[in-house]
Write a structure and sequence with these properties.
By secondary structure, the chain is α+β, with helices and mostly antiparallel strands. Helix content is about 35%, strand content about 25%. The chain contains 7 helices and 11 strands. α5 packs across α7. The radius of gyration is 17 Å and the shape is globular. The structure holds coenzyme A. Coenzyme A binds next to β4, β6 and α7. InterPro entries: 4-PPantetheinyl_Trfase_dom, 4-PPantetheinyl_Trfase_dom_sf, P-Pant_transferase_sf. Pfam families: ACPS.
Length: about 240
């Protein structure tokens, strides 16, 4: 019988390396045997969400994160020790994670989830549902630096929504790697609308920003404190497939 492809079968990041797994929500739901009971406090937090679809997608993101982290730490997924920093950023606790210098981050939108793990530096990931151009026009006016806004306006109209999605995912991935979240000013993360991998200096952290069409039309970006881009895998009906960036 078809069973959920064990993330333990994915490559284990060595020092300085990172790994990102991406899955469409519909894809995850189609796999028999995916999921397990989350720790009580985590489940309680999720069960307070009003919408059933929000609860389902967060549960899936955390189950996927715990499967990946359990494989890295050699423990049961539900036993992976997670705490929250003051800014809400989830972080690993315990000697195992400290020894591996392991960081992680996750993201969810209505269509997809992403989990990133990194050794030796911070990682931030983002996935976002596509939005129409008029919505991006408002977001870009408020959230893009004036020079970036001008470069974005110069993108041909038919490509502008996808470009804004890529820039927005990049900004969030950077702010999630540093832990600022949206308490940081997205305008101060300056990104050209090309989607090409680039280095971003944010305070003392030098982050490599990478994005790709692995989940298109859903947007995805990853910022990692490393010189090397992450290995990216996407869940397909046949198991994990490597995705180029
Ligand atoms: C973190 C934040 C950028 C997430 O953005 P989002 O697009 O809504 O959601 P994403 O799916 O990308 O990420 C959500 C996950 O990021 C993680 N996260 C939360 N705070 C984080 C932070 N400061 N840094 C990195 N990751 C964070 C969590 O795991 C969260 O999922 P969970 O709540 O299920 O545990 C944003 O919600 C935030 O900054 N929140 C803090 C409150 C705040 O400043 N609000 C102002 C809104 S204008």
């Amino acid at each position: 019988m078809k069973t959920f492809p064990d993330p333990a079968g994915l490559p284990h990041p060595g020092p300085g390396d990172s790994l990102v797994v991406l899955a469409r929500v519909a894809e995850l739901a189609a796999w028999p045997g995916f999921g397990f009971a989350l720790p009580e406090a985590e489940e309680a937090r999720i069960s307070r969400l009003l919408k059933a679809e929000d609860r389902a997608v967060r549960r899936a993101a955390w189950q996927l994160a715990r499967l990946l982290l359990g494989a890295a730490l050699g423990c049961a997924p539900a036993a992976v020790p997670v705490t929250r920093a003051l800014n809400g950023r989830p972080q690993l606790d315990g000697a195992g994670a400290a020894q591996l210098d392991l960081d992680f981050n996750l993201a969810h939108c209505s269509g997809a989830v992403a989990v990133g793990v990194a050794r030796g530096g911070r990682i931030g990931v983002d996935v976002e549902d596509p939005r129409p151009l008029d919505v991006w026009t408002d977001i870009a006016r408020d959230m893009f630096d004036p020079a970036d806004h001008a470069s974005w306006r110069a993108v041909p109209k038919e490509a502008r929504a996808a470009a804004a999605l890529a820039v927005w995912c990049g900004k969030e991935a950077v702010l999630k790697a540093t832990g600022e979240g949206l308490a940081g000013d997205p305008r101060t993360v300056k990104l050209a609308p090309s989607g090409a991998p680039s280095a971003v200096q944010r305070g003392e952290r030098r982050l490599l920003l990478a994005a790709g069409p692995a989940l298109a039309p859903t947007g995805f970006a990853c910022a990692v404190e490393s010189d090397r881009p992450p290995a990216v895998f996407v869940l397909t009906p046949d198991g994990w497939r490597t995705a180029g960036l």
